[in-house]
Specification:
10 helices; 221 residues; six-stranded mixed beta sheet; alpha+beta; 6 strands; 13% strand
Length: 221
């Protein structure tokens, strides 16, 4: 029900987003009050952050801060020169992945959504909505080096801020990563990769992306 209410109706999606934003504000307010009572409550930081992100993400989606390329791939646009792409939020997992079995089905459907998002980037480049020179950067635990190369990316050592983001999101990353592995699995910081490409390079890989997407189409929406 929440899926249909949030994705199909503009008015209800805005109402839901505002209500969940209010919950996030209350949680953060309570957290700061607890810190003033005792600094030991700072230990709750790694729980409070993913919880508040869950409640805030619908608001960011409604106001357009999250630029969705597909249901599980979003971009935070840095102007016309750069897209920072990210995996969907925990709220997006609730909307689109909750009925998918863990393990290979989970990985395949997630990859399907990634491919759909990359093809949307290509569409935007081909329609001159964004330039060919645009830099597309992200990080993922789900890309092997071979897969990244097939999708038109090169792998680099990520900047320091990526490690900080992963540490703060570690609880979310752990359950998402465990779902992909169908067992309890803890992401390793040493496996973090920055995947980088350009709009032009993605366009050169359009045929491969379409072929792979069609193979995974049974896991799409």
């Amino acid at each position: 029900m929440i899926n249909r209410a949030f994705t199909k109706n503009i008015i209800s999606s805005r109402i839901i987003a505002l209500l969940l934003l209010l919950v996030a504000v209350i949680i953060l307010g309570g957290f700061f009050l607890l810190i003033q009572y005792s600094p030991l409550f700072l230990l709750l930081f790694f729980i409070v952050i993913p919880v508040t992100q869950f409640f805030i993400s619908p608001f960011f989606r409604v106001v357009g801060y999250y630029n969705y390329l597909s249901p599980m791939l979003l971009a935070i646009a840095q102007g016309k020169k750069r897209y920072d792409i990210h995996n969907g939020t925990s709220f997006d997992y609730l909307l689109h992945m909750r009925k998918i079995n863990c393990g290979t089905p989970w990985q395949n459907r997630l990859l399907y959504f990634y491919l759909t998002g990359l093809l949307e980037v290509i569409r935007r480049v081909e329609n001159d909505e964004i330039p060919e020179e645009i830099i597309i950067r992200g990080s993922s635990y789900f890309f092997s080096e071979n897969t990244a190369l097939r999708l038109g990316f090169r792998l680099e050592k990520p900047p320091v801020m990526v490690y900080y983001k992963i540490i703060t999101d570690y609880i979310d990353l752990t359950w998402m990563y465990s779902c992909s592995k169908r067992r309890l699995a803890f992401p390793s910081l040493k496996n973090v990769k920055a995947a980088v490409t350009t709009g032009r390079e993605l366009c050169l890989h359009k045929a491969q992306l379409i072929i792979l997407q069609k193979k995974l189409s049974s896991y799409g929406t």
